[in-house]
Amino acid sequence: MGRTSMEMGIRVEAEHLQSVTSRHANNSDFTMAAVDTEGKPVVLPPLRTDTDVAKRRSEDAKRRCTAQREAFAGEAWAQTDPTSGRPGCHVENAAGREAAQP
After folding, report:
1. How far is Cα 33 from Cα 5, in angstroms, rounded to an integer?
2. Cβ neighbours of 51 (radius 10 Å)
3. pLDDT in tens, 82-91
4. pLDDT at 45 exceeding the cut of 90
5. Long-range pairs for 96-102: beta carbons < 8 A, 24 or more residues apart
6. Phi-psi bin for 49: left (phi > 0), alpha (psi -120 to 50), beta?
7. Ordered structural domains, the chain, with CATH
8. Is the Cβ–Cβ distance between 91 and 31 less than 8 Å?
9. Which DSSP string do the residues of 45-70 spell out, in sequence order?
10. Residues contacting 93, CB < 8 A, separation 6+
11. Cα separations (Å) of 34 from 5, 23, 39, 101?
12. Total-model pTM
């Protein structure tokens, strides 16, 4: 998705324990930013898109990211990251420090 963030797809299945049948219950896309111990963004290795499915998912994630940036362009949290100069949002990491999420 980006250089310092990654989107993961989550699919939830509900299973009826007595009949051992399952069904799709929910799905979601979850984005995480990679940060070091000081809360600064860490560049991730490039995503391998060896299959058509992986390529489609990667392109879909990029479209979602672009749409979200455009939808929230006027919001303070979606402004350009002063450290990298890239558009993104600022989030609090686990250490309580502000980190840029591209």
Report:
1. 4
2. 9
3. 555 555 544 4
4. no
5. 97/38, 97/39, 98/39, 99/33, 99/35, 99/39, 99/40, 99/41, 100/4, 100/33, 100/41, 101/4, 101/5, 101/31, 101/33, 101/41, 102/2, 102/3, 102/4, 102/5, 102/33, 102/41
6. beta
7. 5-101 (3.10.129.10)
8. no
9. PPPP--SHHHHHHHHHHHHHHHHHHH
10. 33, 35, 39, 99
11. 6, 33, 9, 8
12. 0.57
pLDDT digits (tens, 9 = 90+) for 46-70: 888 899 998 998 888 888 888 887 8
Q: What angle do CA 43, 54, 35 make, to 5 degrees?
A: 20
Number of Cβ within a 10 Å radius of residue 33: 20
